[in-house]
Amino acid sequence: MNTAAGAYFAAWKASAAAISDPDLRKRSEERLADAQARFNNIAVAGKGTRQSFDTLMTDVKDQSTFLGHDLNASAIASLKPNAAKFNTRANTVFTKVDGVTKMFDEYIASLRP
């Protein structure tokens, strides 16, 4: 994602530099700066969300491993306190994912004519 964005923004920067009208060039450069800032906000939010998601998935794997050779009602019941914490954290992660998706959708919509 960052590689493609870097190439896109570099091409935009070069294109803006080729505009001879100073006012038009300035507006293009301002729009470029705005687009880069919004993209960077999405990237930062996405990275944080990814880290939260990865931690959540580690917990799922740990619980799966825990039950791997001890799959019975007692073992499952012993995970009840973990499940409550997990569900709370999962809801937080899903909210973050929704937030990043909304940011991305708004960014894409802003690029349309």
Structure description:
With 113 residues, the chain is mainly α. It is built from four helices and no strands. It has helices spanning 2-17, 22-68, 73-78, 80-111. The radius of gyration is 22 Å and the shape is rod-shaped. The two termini are 23 Å apart. The model has no long low-confidence stretch (mean pLDDT 92).
The average pLDDT score comes to: 92
Main sheet record: none
Proportion of residues in extended strands: under 5%
How many strand segments? Answer: 0
N-to-C span: 23 Å
Number of helices: 4
Q: What overall form do the CA principal axes indicate? A: rod-shaped
Oligomeric description of these chains:
single chain
Global Rg: 22 Å
How much helical structure, as a percent, in the residues? over 70%
Task: Decide which structural class fits the backbone.
Answer: mainly alpha
Low-confidence stretches: none
Sketch the topology as an H/E string, one letter per element.
HHHH
Key features of this structure:
113 residues, mainly alpha, 4 helices, rod-shaped
Short description:
By secondary structure, the protein is mostly helical. Helices cover 89% and strands 0% of the residues.
SSE layout and pairing:
Layout: H1 2-17, H2 22-68, H3 73-78, H4 80-111
